[in-house]
Structure formats: structure tokens, C-alpha cells
Amino acid sequence: MPVVVRDGADLYWEKIGAGPALILGAGLNGSGKWWDPNRLALAERFTVYTFDQRGTGRSSKIPVASIEQMAADLVAVMDNAGLVSAHYAGHSTGGGIGVATALDFPGRLRSLLICCSTTCGDPYRQKLLGLRRRLYEQLGGEAYAQFRTLLLYPPYWINEHHQELAAEEARDSGDLGGPEVQASRLNAILAFDRRTEFHRITVPTLVLGANDDLLAPRYFSEEYVRLIPGARAHFASRGGHALTKTEADLFNRVALEFFTELTA
After folding, report:
1. Across-strand partners of 206?
2. Distance of alpha carbon 58 from alpha carbon 69, whole angstroms
3. 3-class SS at 232?
4. pLDDT tier at 175, thresholds 50, 70, 90
5. What's 3-120+193-263's CATH class?
């Protein structure tokens, strides 16, 4: 079990496949298990690395200070894995971690795929995540997980996978830290706003979003494309916030095309 210790936290990571290094950063739930629908397909051409962010999964269940702290965690994982640089795909909060890494650790990322992520904690996000925080604090992990399902998945997916999602809710409530830990993660992504620095991102960047995403509406992806030099966009007609899972074949195809083009 590969684990690296940094800034008071044990950070779990793993890898599969062969080829150029590709790191996958999960969203707010923070666990590398998020990428189970994608890892095998991507590992056909890449060595795929996943990691559990501090406060989640098999890493230490301790509070998070900032997205920048988790970007430094990512670099520690890379050092532990012997990676000087790597391609990177980040979903939601993982997209922010990738952006912070590109800005604060130039040269460590070769490229950047930002999927269903946000550029700042605007009033819409403050209201939405503030309610999530209150749900966890006042009603507990089960209610938090059920509300998360409604935010992540579009109606067609919930109707087709309701039994699978019930099991996921039970599992995810165990992956999370307590209310204090999860509140710190929510606060970190709400506080993240590096828009005035996006012009410094020089690596090839693809922004992927879904038109029906409730948690990270399309306008955030459009802002990334507008502010990152040379960034390209791909928008799915449906899939919701959990696009990497609900439309896994689409995500895998788009990601493989983007990263393979850069390694050809």
C-alpha cells in the first residue's frame, strides 16, 4: 500500500497500467475510487495514478486548509511515485487541485484536463455548498450522501441506477471524515479563486463539462476557457456533475484523444 506522509497526513495512492504517467484527481468526495469507471480504459495507454485526498478514503481523516495544501499533497505523491512530471485530469475539486498545481509548481504537470469544475465560490455555490454543510452537521452522513446523489446525478441516471446509488451512498458516507473534516473541504473549494493568475497556465488544457451540471454549471467551464490561454472546451449534452461516471465512455474517449494527441 503506497503511502506518503506530508504536513501531518498519510496520503494513499496507487497505480495501474503502462505508458506515460496520467494522474486522476477526484472531486469533493476525494477518493481515488471515484475513477473506477475510467481507470482500466485509460490504463490501456497510460500508467494511471489515483490518490485519496487528505480527509477522505484511505488517507488521514483530518481537516483541509486549502486547495493549495492539497496541490502540495499531490506533488508529494508524485515525488513518492518517482514522477518528475505527469499528465493530469481533475474532476470538480480535483480540477482546482490541478489548476493550483500548474500555478504553484510549474513544470510538474504536462497537461491539464479540467472536468466539471468551478473557478470560484460565487453566491450560487456558497448557497449550494452551505446547505450541504448544514445537512451533514444537523442530519448526518446519510442525509448528506442522499442529497449529494441528487446534485451529482441527472434524473435519467438515478432512475436507471437507484439500487447501485443506494449502495454508493452507504459506502461514501464511510469514506468521508466527520462534519468538521467535510466542512473544511467545502470551505476550501469555496475559497479557491485564482482567476487573475489563469493567464500563467501554459500547459495544454482541455475543459470538459455537461450542460445539465447543477454543481458546476457550464458558465464556470466557459470562464476557464476564456481565461486560460489556448484552452479548448468540450460540452456533453447530458451527464450531470458526475459526467465521468454517467457518461464514462464519452469521458474516456475524450480524455484518451486529448492525452494521446500530446504523447504521439
Report:
1. 113, 232
2. 18
3. strand
4. low
5. alpha beta
